[in-house]
Amino acid sequence: MALFGTNGVRGIANEYITPELAIDVAKSLGTFMGSKGTIAIGRDTRISGDMLKSAAIAGALSAGLTVIDVGIAPVPAVQYYVRDHTDAGIMITASHNPREYNGIKLIAGDGSEFSREGEDEVEKIYHSREFASSTWDRTGDLRTDHSANEYYIRGIINAVDAESIRKKQFTVVMDTGCGAGSVTLPFLLQRLGCKVITINAQTDGTFPWRNPEPTPDVLTELVDIVRSSGADMGVAQDGDADRAVFVDENGEFIGEEVLLAMIAKYILSRRKGVIVTPVSTSQRMADVAAEAGVELIWTAVGSINVARKMMETGAVFGGEGNGGLIFPQHQYCRDGAMASAVLLEIMAGGTTLSYLTKTVPVYFNSKTKVRCDDLISTMECVKANVSLEKDVKVDTTDGVKVWYNDGWVLIRPSGTEPIVRIFAESKTKSRAEELMSGGLKLVEKCR
Ligand code: MG
Question: What is the DSSP string of 397-421?
Answer without folding.
Answer: SSSEEEEETTEEEEEEE-SSSSEEE
